[in-house]
Structures are given as C-alpha cells and as structure tokens.
From TrEMBL:
It comes from the Bacteria. The keyword Disulfide bond does not apply. Keywords: Cell cycle, Cell division, Cell membrane, Cell shape, Cell wall biogenesis/degradation, Glycosyltransferase, Membrane, Peptidoglycan synthesis, Transferase, Transmembrane, Transmembrane helix. The chain crosses the membrane at residues 12-33, 53-69, 81-98, 110-130, 142-160, 166-183, 188-205, 264-290, 302-327, 339-360. It comes from Clostridium senegalense. It is an enzyme of class 2 (transferase). This is Probable peptidoglycan glycosyltransferase FtsW. Pfam families: FTSW_RODA_SPOVE (PF01098). The keyword Aminoacyl-tRNA synthetase does not apply.
Amino acid sequence: MKKTKKKLGEIDFILFAIILTLVCFGVLMVYSASSYSAAFKNNNAEFYLWKQLMWASLGVISMIVTMNVDYHKYKRYTGKLMIITIVLLLLVFVFPPVNGARRWISLGPLGFQPSEIAKYVVVLFIAMFIDRKGEKIKSFKEGIFPCLAVAGVYAGLILAEKNLSITAITMMVALVMLLISGVEIKKFAKIFLPIIALGVIFIVFEDYRLRRVIGFMDPWKDAQGDGYQLIQSLLALGSGGLTGVGIGQSRQKCFYIPEPHTDFIFAIVGEELGFIGCAFVVILFILFLWRGLIAILKSKDIYGTMLATGIVAIITLQAIINIAVVTVSMPTTGVPLPFISYGGSSLVINMTAMGILLNITRQNNYKSL
C-alpha cells in the first residue's frame, strides 16, 4: 500500500505581496523623509536609503528562511530563547543611554533593541503554554495568572529600559492571545484594575511621560516644547491635502519634525502623498489584518492559531498606535510604523516573524498525495 505524503501548500501570496509592498514603500519613504537631514548631517542624501535597503534585504532573506521552517520546531527552542532574551534585556544596561533610555545593544556601527525580540519570544511562550494547557488555560490559577506572570517579567525588564510603549504592547498581545484561546473577559477582572493603576503610576511618576500626556491634551499650550512635535505632525498632514505636495517635496522634514524617517514617517507620507497616500498605507494594514485573520482561522492546530494570533496582533497594534500618535489621537510614544519606519533590528525581526506566519499559511494549505 502506498504511503500518503504530506505536502506543504503554497504560501498566502496576497499576504506575501502585502508585506513586500509595505517594505518597498517603506524604503522609498525612508529615503524621501531622510534625504534632507542626511545630506547635512552625513554629507550623503542616500545615507539612510542604503542602510534601509541592506536591512530590508536581510529581512527578506530571513523571511524566506523561516517561511520554509516548520513552525512546530520553535517549541523545542522556546525555553532557550526565553533565557537568551532575558540576558539580552539585562545586557542593555551595560551600554550608555541613548536619549535618556537604555534600549540598545551596540556592536560597533550596528545596534539592536532586545525588546524587539522579547515581544515575539513572549508570543512563542504563550502559544506553547496555551497549546500544552488545553482547557486548563481558562483557569485563573493554572492558566491565566502564570501566563501573564511570565509575560509580565519580560514587560517589566522592557519597562526598566524606559520603553513603556513596547511594555504595553507586550501585555496587550498576551491578553489578546488569552482571549482568542477562549478565556472569558470577566476572568480578567482581577487584574484589570491593578494593571490600569500601575499604568497611571508609571506615567504620573515619570516626568517625561506626564509631560507627553499634558502636551497631547493641549499641544499649543507649549508649542515650542512638549507640543512641538505633535503640532509639526499636524502641519505636515494638513499641508498634504488630498494628493500631497509630491514625493520628496516635504517641508516638515527640513528639521521641523525631528528624525522624520523614524516614528513620525507617517506624517511625511501625509504631506508628500496626501490623504490618498495615508489611505494607501492604512488599507495595506487592513489587508494584512484580513489575511492574518484567515491564517488564524484556517490553522490546523492550537499552537499555530496562537502563534499567528500573536504575530498579527503585534503588527496590527503597532500600526494602530503609531498612526494614532502621528494624527494626535493619543499621547506620543516611541512605537515605529511596522515595515515603514527606519530601523534595522525592528525590520529584520518583523520580517522573520512574517516568515513564521507565512509558514503557518503553507501548512494550512498542505495537500495529501
């Protein structure tokens, strides 16, 4: 009797195309947003373009590799990755602070943020934990509490680096994964108030965070101080109108918006490409969420479902928060726009995670021969 062979199906080509479109658009916008300041500071208008192209290329290679690795294999390495990540999160305190925060490990001209790895390691752990616990995950004592406690350890280390935004995303993703696993919302009642109280404390007792909140409530009250960046962002978006002033023609990137190629790159998109450009980016992220949800719903096992949920949640939450900040819909945070903002470690790690998500879609579509 002939044995049945399992064959991986094709990747979700729509999802693959969405990711590559976002990355290519990001490289273009990084060049456009950074060219003016790079010409002055680095004597090379293409300085950030070539760096972003290099990181994007490494990211694509990493995505292709993980796209062809069975996602179930990550279970056996999750424990080791968790230990390594804790070491890396502690190692940042050896290096000098950057803008008052210790988030980076610098290796010569290169550097990366361990927090970018940590949020995905938390996803790997929770996916494995939920898969092993089964129905017990719905128990507060055996499932919810230990799961959130482990996530809280990583979130606490990230918070110690003065990175409240990634701390919040890490915990929010943990909650999303638990909710998708079937945990009832009412069971979170025991922890909601303490978490909210801690959030308020971390904001009120950290001067720069409190000033950001006050600046958000009335940016024009301190137009040259805490409200400056928000006002410049609104000016950029307002100047773009429907179709924008044209690619490369932004005025706000000329030392008005600080480092416009990073967290506030969406404002440059709005100025240069107008409402149409902003809508294009938002639609791409909506399409990403759509294909991500399909991957979640079609997953063949609990582990794949939870892994896809965590990965999709990280990208979606970061996109929502970044766009909300740039449009002055929430206080300023240091969350980059996934695939578009300049940043080597963030781009490569996100692309690696996309490979895992694409591998899940391949296994969702396997055929028996």
